[in-house]
Amino acid sequence: MQGLSQLYYLHGIGYDFIKYTGEHVVFDEQTRSQALRCCGIDTANQKQINKLNFELDIAPWLVAVGDVSIVEQKDTLFKVRMPDYQCHGIASIHIKNLNYEYQFDLSKGMIVGEFIHEDTRYVEVAYQIMGMPAGYFDAKINLPEGQYNTQIWSVPNECYKQTTHPTTGISVQLYTLYSDRNLGIGDFADLDELIIHSAQSDCDYILLNPLHLLFTNQQHRVSPYSPNHRCLLNPLYIAIDRTQEYAMSEQLQNDYQQCLVSLQAQKQQPFIDYKLISEYKYDLLTAVYTHFKHNKTQQHHDKFIAFTQQFAAQLKVFNNDECAIYWQYLAHQQLNDCQQLCIKKGMAIGLINDLAVGCSQDSLEYKINQDLYAADAHIGAPPDPWAESGQDWGLPALNPMQLSKNKYAFFKQLLRSNMASVGGLRIDHVMAIRRLWWCFNINNKAQGCYVYYPFEHLIALLKIESQLQKNMIIGEDLGVVPPEIKTAMQDANMLGNILFYFEKDQHGEFIPPTQLRHQALLMVANHDVPPFAAWWQAQDLSIKVQYKLLADNALASERAKRTAEKVKLLHWFTNAGVTHLHAQSEAREVYENLLYVLAKSTVSMLCLQLDDLDEQALPVNIPGTYLEYPNWRRRLSQSVSDIFINRSDFIKTLTQSRKGL
């Protein structure tokens, strides 16, 4: 392998993939070359190509250790590279954090790799050292030929495990919560209420949508999966009436009540008017900050300063805008209070955060980290049955060669920020730690290929941070999943994500509950598919016609397909011993029986979508649409209290049956 072909491999540019049809697709030279050009590489410059090949392939063998040295706790092997003629004498490791020094004989290691360069054989030799707790340890390596510095990553065998018994919980898009007291968008006080009711029903967790910072001045951009910054929180989730400033200010209380009156009509609508609500809420949030600025106590000020110091790296994007920073302080404080309430109420896990796969092209996150990204490349998905030309999600693509900067500080910060104040983390499109589909243009024609990422380091960071932050990890692995991802997730005790709608055998039949993957979070539906009541009654098809996403003349055909799907579900019920249901059964009865059957499976986590408990007909999102349908705006029709009053017996029966498994 020489020249450009070698650089493709070393830079992670994919060679081929298996299409959903089973077809083996090999990426052409033009496509692979364009992927490299997106990384700033002149593919016609042989000198640059040779230089990069040397840096990526040969140079690592010429130094004893790199910036990072991975040591797995299962074998505690520390690896050193050197010419084979230097494999003698005594070496030592001094680990600064632990004030620990270990000596070893260079001749007594195990050779685990080799490389020939200019007639010299270089070897990678593994030496067993003392076991260390999970974490990062600065170390100095003393060899007969010189001293070297590295950071040892002590990698645990698996991710943090909160509980061993099967669990049951609720998933919710926080902004959809309706209550008399909120300002038209669900907030952390509404989440408090959901926690209390969920805990009373013996639920173990609440799975949230991504809470990432969105675009304050662009209220039409409300997708939590196309955020402004993934390390920061959306201030609209702050419950203003739960702040210290609200309790101290009669003026603020009056203004809040007046806003409630003004927004009353809008709150009765099925969709959130973000523009209107944002105007009212940001005015009040500004008043909250102003009150803090002029009336803060020393204790309150000290807590704020401590927060700014703890999150200094993330808060840099605000350029010392104290108002925006204070909103982050309030949001983090209230989110933490919610998790503490989960713990107090005895929930096994508590809140589970959701990490989006990327940020928007014009986001604060992108701008401050622009050197980490490729140019003119977006991430998306390869062709599938629903999008034959593939999908371009419009999110900028991280350059795999840049991720290692500052010992992977970017990815580490991303994990820590999203693990703060929760008990678990769901990672959207977890395959991104291994590979991502890049989309770009060649001669004004859309093209794409897979690009591979430093998987060994990224999964090591996941396991370390999971243990340090005491967060369980769920990897959303819907779609085409490389086998090495599946194996790594299983070995690392990382749960996958199952949607019942998609769990079918090769004949298109729903698979029995006994065959569902154990190590997974099981949901009937999520934010990208119709709520169950809509699916059972085929209301989602009528909605698509209404919004011109489905032609009138195609409706009959799609309804026939849905009828066939319902027949398959009824057949599945019969095999499970449920024989009283039929095609005209009420959606609520079918849904409850579906969950009762699924509850008997040994799947690790069973999740009830609050949309389904609310018997929603309207979807929260229709994939493939932007402004055609009001995505990410649909409210629940009932309050949390009313939903649980109406469904408490069902939920309690379900959770109790799971605890008996």
UniProtKB/TrEMBL annotation:
Catalytic activity: Transfers a segment of a (1->4)-alpha-D-glucan to a new position in an acceptor, which may be glucose or a (1->4)-alpha-D-glucan
SUPFAM superfamilies: (Trans)glycosidases
GO MF annotation terms: 4-alpha-glucanotransferase activity
Gene3D superfamilies, alphabetized: Glycosidases
Keywords: Carbohydrate metabolism, Glycosyltransferase, Transferase
Alphabetized InterPro entries for the sequence: GH, Glyco_hydro_77
Enzyme Commission number: 2.4.1.25
One GO-annotated biological process of the protein: carbohydrate metabolic process
Pfam families, per the entry: Glyco_hydro_77 (PF02446)
Similarity comment: Belongs to the disproportionating enzyme family.
Protein name, as recorded: 4-alpha-glucanotransferase
Species: Pseudoalteromonas holothuriae
Organism lineage: Bacteria, Pseudomonadati, Pseudomonadota, Gammaproteobacteria, Alteromonadales
